[in-house]
Amino acid sequence: MKREDNSPSRRSVVKIVVDKEYEEGLRGIEDYSHLIIVYHLHLSQFDGNLVRDFHEGVRVGVFATRTHERPNPIGISVVELLKVEGNILQVGGINAVDGTPVLDIKPYDYFDRVENIRVPGWWLKKFYQH
To answer: Which UniProt keyword terms apply here (predicted)?
Structure first.
């Protein structure tokens, strides 16, 4: 992944550079509006804590969060595909830093869409109190 700056933000536009040898595998990807990106959280250093303070005193297990500090340093994001130029994908909506290794790219289709999801109250407070 290549970023203009190195601050992870879902609001940034990111370039995913696919190795030239896999460029043919991108054929038809431009027909999708969104993609699923699987990537290695290569800078993450898991400290072994499976339970942590997450928000305003709420203690939850690492698998109940989207934190990058995980025993398995694998990230996944649904991104908007903005542009395809050869082996370069411009996407929006990924929270990763420059140089993050991409493990896989998958099209986002109707089978992956979930409606009426449930999330805990602490999550709503943290992400929607702005």
So the answer is: S-adenosyl-L-methionine
